[in-house]
Structures are given as structure tokens and as C-alpha cells.
Sequence to fold (388 residues):
Amino acid sequence: METYATALSYAIPGFLGLIIIEAIVSWLMGKKVNRGLDTISSLSSGITNTLKSLMGLSIIILSYEWMVDHVAIFNIQHNWTLYVLTFIGLDFAGYWSHRWNHEFNLLWNRHIIHHSSEEFNLACALRQEISALVSIYFFLYIPIAILGVPAPVVALIAPIQFFAQFWYHTRLINKMGVLEHIIVTPSHHRVHHAINPEYIDKNYAQIFIIWDKLFGTFQAEMDAVPAVYGVKKAVKSWNPFLINFMHLWQLIKDAWRTRNWIDKIRIWFMPTGWRPKDVAEKFPVHITTDVYARTKYDTSGSKSFLVWSWVQLIITVLLMYHLLVSFADFQFVDIVGYASFLMVSIFAYTALMDRMKLSILFEVIKVAIGLLLLLNLGNWYHLSNLIP
Fold:
């Protein structure tokens, strides 16, 4: 985890720098690709995902290290071939895990946050889940385990493969010629994030677009069909915690309400969006059918309120970065306390962005936790060592 924190401490400034560059270039081009509250929500979601990882809130059913120790048949020597095969193997696994997250009701809850923005920009790339608490796709790594790829190599290549998925979340880059046939480009990924009937559930690949072409899920972007972004059942919230679990909550309610016992069980494994007939009739849910008629979610607020929201985000980013760079110096209990304070803070200001009265309660809780930590530590996690 210390290695992961170090990698993030280098990657995050790069991500933020590119987001700022995209905002400046889009302004110069006269294209509106960002909205203030939406961008704050996206960045806040990225922070929650990072904090979840730092607290170790993931259950690994079977570790890759165990698999390679028990199923390896070959022993590839450490050369460039090993790293290339690892990258390709991880990308293949990524295609299928991504596809299944879209295709099954329960698994969609792991991924809905990434598609929840009604914008498409570099900031929305950071909308990552906190709801996938159990690692269930370990079996997809069996092929590279059989090849005997060492665990440290996977640990090195995995974040590289993940970070390489950031750059193509943009509307500012058009089609890229011959690269359109090899790698995932912004054009391909705009299709993937769109809810147009022509585009829905296409282009699952993460790096190599060849997987979609092999398995019949490829769709090229069409000039005559401008992409509309988001999810078909609009989330209507800026709060990443609510977005992460709203689909699961809908499934729980539907499973409870249906009178058919078979439906209570199969709802979890049916295609995404499937609902029992009796529940769908009695408790209808609005699903977007005319994508061009949909109004984007927004909440009213003064300029000072928008500035306040940005200040909250900036302070949270700076504190998270302090946690990252000082990670090796903290005990586990310190990490949990620090991360919990930031989690509550994010819930508070994003709930207020939604105009929820509950935000006041979480502001009070945030202040209480902060004061308790200060009184207990006598210092904010040794921050005075960096800023006397």
C-alpha cells in the first residue's frame, strides 16, 4: 500500500495539471466541457476512491501471489517480453471485468459512479468507485498466473495500465487516424460513455480496442449521432457516496417489494436495469428514452457558494495529498482517522451542493471529529513538520 500511495503522489499532480490544461484549452476553443459543481463532484469521487484504498477497505478472495505460487506452469525470464505479456494480460482481464460490470444488475453498482457525470471530460475519469468492496475478478488473472508472471511485475504494471486510461476522457481530441484501429481513443470512449441507443454498452476495452472488435462490442463514433452522456436513470446528485450505492438501494427495494420469490433472487443476476414486472408497474422509475430532450442535473447557487464549494474541495485535496506523502510515517489507526475525517467532509459539502438538509448534520460531525483529532494529537498529523 505504501508503494500505491507513492505512485498516487506522483500521478495526482499530473492528473490535476491535465484537467486544468483541458479547461483552459476548451475555454480558448469556445467549447464548454466543464461545469463547476460537476467537476467538484468528479474530483471528490476520485478522492473517496483513494481514501478507500488507503484504508484497505477491499476484501481479496484470492490473492494473485497465491495463484502464481500454485498454478504457474511456466517461468518467463525477466525481460521486455514479460512486461508486454503482463500488460496485455491485464488489459484482457480489464475488458471482461468492465463488460460484466455493465451487463449484470448487481455488478453495475460497482461502476455506475464512473458513468454518472452528464459531462465528458478529464475530471470525470476520476469518478471511481468505493462500492466494490470485494475483489471478485481474481479468476481473470489465472492466464498470467499460469505463465508464471511474478506478483511484483503485476504490481508494477497494474497502476500503469490503470493510469493510462485517463487521457482519453476528453471531447477536445477528434479521431486519431491509424490509432483508431489499435488503441482506445477519445472517440471510442465518447461512444462508451454515451446513452444514445446507437452507442449504449459498446467499447468496453481499456487500452487495446481490438478486444471490442474480437468480441462484437465495437461501435465507431458517428458525426450524425452526437453523444449524450450520463446514465439512463439520471443520478441527480453531486454526492459520490449516494451515487455509489443508489443502484444497490434500488435493487434491495425491488427485491423486497416483489411478491415473486424467484424474482427476489434472480433480480441480482439479470441484465442491468431489469426489474420484476409487479414492482415496475407499481413503482415506476423514470428512464431516459429521448436523450436529446433530457435536462442536465443542476442546483442553483450564488457565485459565493460556488467559490465556497471550490475552497472545500481544494482544502480536501491538499489534506489528502498530505496523507499520501506522509503515508509511511503513519500508523494504521492514524490513516483511518485522517481518511474518515476527509470522507465525512466530502459527504458534507457535496450534500450541501445537492441542497440536502442532512449536510448540516455532517458539517457538525466533521467539526466534532476534527476537534477531537486535534485535541488528541496536539497537532494535525505532524503537518507542522512540513509547514512550521
